[in-house]
Amino acid sequence: MTNSNNTKEQTRKFFIYARKSTDSEDRQVRSIGDQISELKELAKKENLEIIDTIVEKQTAKKPGRPLFAEMLKKLEAGEAVGILAWHPDRLARNSVDGGQIIYLVDTGVIQELKFPTFWFDPTPQGKFMLSIAFGQSKYYVDNLSENIKRGHRQKLKNGLWPQMAPLGYLNNKETKQIYVDKEKSPFIEKAFEAYATGNYTLKNLRKKINDLGLVGKKGKMLSVSNYQYLLQNPFYYGLIRYGGEFYEGKHKPIISKKLFDEVQEVMKRKSKPQKVKKMKFFLYRGFFKCGECGFTITADKKIKKSGKEYIYYYCTKKNPHHQCTQNVFTREEKISSQISEELQKVSLPDDCADWMIKELKKEKIQSSKSSDFFVQKTEKELSKLDEKLEKLMNAYLESVLNISEYQKAKNFLINQKQVLKDKLNAFELKSNNRFELADKFIKDSKQAKIIASKENPEGIRDFLKKIGSNFQIQNQNISFLPRGAWQIVAKSALSASPAGEATAPQVRKTSENSEIVNWRRGRDSNPQVLADGGFQNRWNSRYPTSPFGVNIPHVQPRVGHG
After folding, report:
1. Which of 49, 168, 373, 392 has the greatest count of CB atoms below 10 A from its CB?
2. With a threshold of 0.85, does the pTM exceed it?
3. Which residues contact 265 (CB under 8 A, 6 or more apart)?
4. Which domain holds residue 528?
């Protein structure tokens, strides 16, 4: 009985405190599980009673750890007499927390501190050694912080982002660089494009893009403030803004600087979208104009005595300068049928289209050689800006400029460089797009008859919008102005008909006595299919009297029924 009482008297109450933050300075520290395991062994060896095990996953670089503060309050309340920790740096790495521990030892609130890796007694010598250990911990943090800042400066100088990649990008742990997140970057681009229209508030934009499926790094939905920060971040057009200074980034931009600037202008104006009155959906309402008075064709639903519903289209007759005589209503299915017939007229035969695609590839190779002059000129201008940046830095180092003047001038030059880079990228993109759009145009024309044959009125309508403009209805017949290249195909004998593809005699008959003209890309989005020389010459040699020799008048003729 006596031995049992002596054992109980020798048992002291302790807290186990284990900490591991996510900071880089703690990466080599043992895991929390290892810490607790060894501390429990020490407690058993020293005959200590553990009243609570406190685990905190937060840095000790600055004061404010909630669990640590709560433990000290319990010590002041007399719930325990000491703390078990792996090392003094687990308790404090800042002067405030370290001083508080030593003060509580001085006042007797903390009677013992025990560490597997450090000796401590509550004596003047022990407190002196403890203060040295806390000082070393703080020095390590301060020195590491400076090293990290130095590393950040070097990364920024090399055009690398020194922290976690912004939304839309991902960190490559092996190369330590950043690459585009193919899953999320399209949503970022859509967010910029949508906001640049001026039709969205940040709140509306958040709902629209979040509904598409964009989430943050932790899988949470983005807030309005997240979108405001995102839309103001120059990182997305290629620049790094860090500490109020701009750096050229080596990462791939998601948007152009032009789009970024447009978004900033919209944000300054704080434009708000006008409320749009909700209307019933009709497939062609607002799509056609009246062929007589030029006013909008509207729609309505009629129910026959049989109970069957029909949708009719008719002129609103709101032109105050013309008494419209269009009193005939046109049924929706009749309009769809006429559109299908028009689409058949812009469908190329497969063999013709395939040959054109092959010739475009040859033309693309020849065209790429002619772009060297512009590229060299732009690169020379970029080199001059680099020289100015170098002189600017020297001026700052020689104290000719203060930091504010240096940053202002540097930011201006960096933005000038970005404008030139955008021009260079746009030129290269345009050079490629000229042929890519032509290739897409030819493939679309092959698909026209397939689209026309499908039971998909919306798809048929959208394809018609792609190939023409100025859509009209008069006397129940539709008409429109085909855009450049589509007009040539529609007027040619090469277009495939529902009955079959055009034959060689039809081709010759269609274009007799015609003049050769370039099939060029105009101001609209139509692709440039025939360029000077190459492709056109090869085309004319294959089809000497082809419809692509038809002279297109300045005012394009209308195509339609009636």
Report:
1. 168
2. no
3. none
4. 339-562
